[in-house]
Amino acid sequence: MGHREDLLEGAKRCLLEKGFVRTTARDIVKESGTNLASIGYHYGSKDALLTQAFVELVQEWGEKSGHHPEQEDTPGGSVERFHSVWARMLDSFEEYRPVWAASMEVVTQGERVPELRGLMARAQTEGRAGLTAMLLGLDEETLDERTVKSVGGFYQALLNGLMVQWLFDPASASTADDLTEGLRRVIEAAGTARRDGAVSP
């Protein structure tokens, strides 16, 4: 690997061990066996490097806990698929706890380092597309922008909320069963409202 890849891998390890705020440029240099000048040359700044490292850690989590067609026997878009995917993601939360803890720090850094917002915004859109494809059983390339924004945004809001619940208190955080029951009740309530004459937005 070259310095660029070494820096990225070193930054990932620092994020998992020390988090976003506590990691210094010297920590990354020591962990990667590179030098301070390499950070600016390849990534522009320490914060940009850490943000890229965070995005890749989340992508690695998604690949590990995400949709595997050969293992999935529930129809895309079904309540059964919904339960299956969330159960699988929740099972991985303990292993990736440092990633979720770092995510809380990354969010707050957006106010301090505005240029990071663009990178996180792009990563957020990619995350929405990945969640939508996983839960609906579709290829990401077939998804239109509106589906990614609406359906993907809904799933992403669930994921982010669940992450916060789990970080604060895993014992009381919603389970896959809780989420699935909640979804069923929301669908049922919406159907009842429509039958009673409510106007859809």
UniProtKB/TrEMBL annotation:
Entry's Gene3D superfamilies? Tetracycline Repressor, domain 2
Name the domain of life: Bacteria
Which segments constitute the HTH tetR-type domain? 1-61
DNA-binding region, residues: 24-43
What is the protein's given name? TetR/AcrR family transcriptional regulator
Do you know which Pfam families this protein is assigned to?
Answer: TetR_C_31, TetR_N
Q: Which UniProt keywords apply?
A: DNA-binding
- Which InterPro entries does this entry report, sorted A to Z? Homeodomain-like_sf, HTH-type_TetR-like_transc_reg, HTH_TetR, Tet_transcr_reg_TetR-rel_C_sf, TetR_C_31
Source organism: Streptomyces kaempferi
Keyword DNA-binding attributed: yes
